Amino acid sequence: MAKRKVPEINSGSMADIAFLLLIFWLMTTSMNVDSGISRKLPPLVEQDNDPGMDAHERNVLQVFVSGNNQLLVAGQRMDVSGLSEKAKTFITNPTNDPSMPEKEMTEIPLLGSYPVSKGLISLQNDRGTSYEMYLKVQNELTKAYNEAKNDLAQKSFGRPYTDLSPEQQKAINKAIPVKISEAEPRNLTGGK
Questions:
Q1: Residue 26: inside a domain, yes or no?
Q2: Within a domain: residue 20?
Q3: Contact 169, 161 (CB under 8 A)
Q4: Which of 48, 66, 163, 186 is the most exposed place for a label (fewest CB within 10 A)?
Q5: Between 143 and 183, residue with greater pLDDT
Q6: At 50, is the pLDDT very low, low, confident or very high (cuts 50, 70, 90)?
Q7: What residues make up the domain containing 124?
Q8: How far, in Å, CA of 109 to CA of 59, rounded?
Q9: CB 128 within 8 A of CB 145
Q10: In whole angstroms, what is the distance from residue 40 CA to residue 54 CA?
């Protein structure tokens, strides 16, 4: 009795097919990319009397988050839900309160001469602060700047900030610059 020969599968092109499938998968799949908080870091400055640094106490809003997630704004305890309104009032200083940030008249294209605030929000947290609380505070500060920009966009151009042209958005960004300084976290809960 003669043995039947089993036909072989041509595997010469299997590597090519696998390679093509891999390329197809890489091209059509979206990768989950972690994104951080969008912040523009200030340029490195020398400590020697820099005339650009305005250290007047009235121009700085101190925001501190303790290790047990308590929020202190200008030395007073505050609920995180009220932070955006407090920050927005600080940023814009609508009543020209002498205890709030100074304003400097600046020539801005499309807006003309506009009083730009010298206000800076200084954010510091304890090393024991939860990440959730840190993000809540960041979101409230971002919300304050976004609302201030949107209010100025409505007043100046009659449209929300997101509907403005790139040139108009640039003008609003010059009028209300985002100035948030993050200090080195403190280590109060560790007993140092």
A1: no
A2: no
A3: yes
A4: 48
A5: 143
A6: very low
A7: 59-182
A8: 25
A9: no
A10: 19
